[in-house]
């Protein structure tokens, strides 16, 4: 059995509002799994070498639960637009370029490198409608070592004529994708990705619902992203009272895989029921909802209603990869919401850190905490101190989320194995 011992300031979420801190503690990793976290090293381990990170912090790796890989080159451009103008001017033309597998071969290694750089080691991705490019992305994710959900997206209406699918073909290609990828790797799994209700016919959603049941896979989509989107979805599906009910009625919540919905800014009581009933995960994407002026997710009230909430970068609607920065943005937005809405209670740092690590990681198994039984998917980050004045370790973590970046991430581990972003990038482009 391979045993590794790491020492540093260990911080992990115990619960939604509680952080567990071991200053200068020890984490023992056996075959990639954490077998113990200790303040004093037990005698039995004294014979092993210790990898001592000094006053650096050891934290769980971040999970990015909503990101559009083909929108990589849209980061930080077109931000004067609102949602539909942005889709038509930037996003649909950009995504249509992935009909060319070679183009995907240039862009996707950069996406994967940047996830690793910024410490997002578990990711859930949108792609495009093109089978070949989606297959390439999936295989690159496997080669990278990341934990991921990925697949082929579906859209058969209300889309430009250069970027839309035939309904039957969309279902057929999705089934082919699931069949050919479901058993390739334990870390990377297919998921069904209808873009959002307004771009999918009822026939398409029903066909995808059957695949969810048949192959027991999950779903990843956008839900009540903005008031305009939710109203449009209800207009197109008059038999449903809410955006969420569209997916329930078409069978898309029937697989045992994860049900992941980005945004969920204006949920109704039907969504409240659906999220609890199907243990669905909502994804807060603070940068993106600000950039497209969609509103602010009511994080604390959703938590009180029993929602699981994770965090996503939503690149390219969001402009920055680092999930640590989405932690600080979530807190800033939460304060704004409290300022404008008297009965709203803002989130605090422990809540946002929990969403970015423990809540997001759980989607991939025993991941997201530095705790016995969890996989050692972890980061070592700088202690963020100034000369002449020291701050406590929890404040150092908070400071990293506000002003740190990938340069402050010193080590990245997946299943207890060190991973280097540039090495992975080289491997992917040489292949
Ligand atoms: Zn999105």
What percent of residues adopt helix (DSSP H or I)?
Answer: 25-40%
Query: Which strand order spans the largest sheet, edge to edge or round the barrel?
Result: 3-2-1-4-15-16-17
Question: Whole-number average pLDDT?
Answer: 96
Q: What is the CATH class designation of the largest domain?
A: Alpha Beta
- CATH arch. level architecture of the largest domain: Alpha-Beta Barrel
How many H/I helices? Answer: 14
Distance between the termini: 32 Å
Shape, per Cα inertia axes: globular
What is the β-strand count?
A: 17
Which features does this protein show?
431 residues, alpha/beta, Urease, subunit C, domain 1, TIM Barrel, 7-stranded mixed beta sheet, 4-stranded parallel beta sheet, 17 strands, 38% helix
Describe what this molecule looks like in 3D:
The chain has 431 residues and is an alpha/beta fold. Helix content is 38%, strand content 23%. It has a 7-stranded mixed β-sheet. 53% of the residues are buried. Bound molecules: zinc ion (ZN). Zinc ion (ZN) binds next to strand 5.
């Amino acid at each position: 059995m391979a045993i590794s011992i790491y020492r540093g300031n260990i911080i992990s979420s115990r619960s939604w509002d509680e952080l567990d801190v071991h200053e200068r503690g020890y984490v023992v990793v056996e075959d990639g799994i954490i077998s113990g976290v200790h303040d004093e090293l037990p005698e039995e381990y004294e014979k092993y070498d210790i990898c001592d990170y000094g006053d650096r912090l050891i934290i769980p790796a971040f999970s990015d639960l909503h990101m559009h890989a083909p929108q990589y080159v849209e980061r930080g451009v077109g931000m004067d637009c609102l949602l539909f103008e942005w889709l038509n001017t930037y996003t649909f033309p950009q995504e249509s370029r992935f009909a060319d597998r070679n183009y995907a071969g240039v862009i996707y290694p950069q996406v994967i490198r940047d996830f690793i750089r910024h410490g997002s080691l578990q990711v859930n991705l949108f792609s495009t409608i093109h089978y070949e490019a989606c297959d390439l992305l999936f295989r690159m994710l496997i080669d990278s070592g990341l934990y991921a959900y990925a697949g082929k997206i579906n859209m058969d209406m209300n889309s430009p004529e250069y970027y839309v699918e035939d309904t039957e073909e969309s279902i057929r290609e999705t089934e082919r994708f699931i069949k050919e990828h479901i058993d390739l790797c334990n870390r990377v799994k297919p998921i069904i990705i209808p873009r959002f209700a307004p771009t999918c016919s009822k026939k398409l959603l029903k066909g995808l619902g059957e695949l969810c049941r048949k192959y027991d896979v999950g779903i990843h989509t956008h839900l009540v992203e903005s008031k305009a989107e939710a109203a449009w979805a209800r207009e197109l599906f008059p038999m449903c009272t809410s955006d969420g009910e569209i997916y329930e009625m078409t069978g898309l919540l029937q697989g045992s895989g994860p049900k992941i919905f980005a945004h969920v800014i204006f949920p109704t009581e039907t969504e409240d029921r659906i999220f609890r009933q199907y243990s669905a995960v909502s994804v807060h994407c603070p940068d993106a909802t600000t950039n497209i002026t969609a509103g602010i997710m009511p994080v604390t009230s959703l938590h009180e209603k029993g929602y699981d909430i994770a965090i996503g970068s939503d690149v390219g609607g969001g402009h920055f990869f680092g999930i640590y920065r989405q932690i600080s943005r979530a807190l800033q937005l939460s304060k704004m919401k409290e300022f404008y809405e008297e009965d709203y209670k803002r989130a605090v740092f422990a809540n946002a850190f929990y969403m970015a690590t423990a809540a997001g990681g759980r989607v991939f198994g025993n991941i997201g905490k530095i705790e016995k039984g969890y996989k050692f998917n972890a980061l070592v980050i700088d202690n963020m101190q100034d000369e002449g004045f020291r701050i406590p370790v929890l404040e150092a973590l908070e400071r990293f989320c506000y002003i740190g970046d990938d340069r402050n991430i010193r080590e990245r581990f997946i299943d207890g194995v060190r991973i280097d972003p540039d090495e992975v990038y080289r491997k992917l482009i040489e292949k």
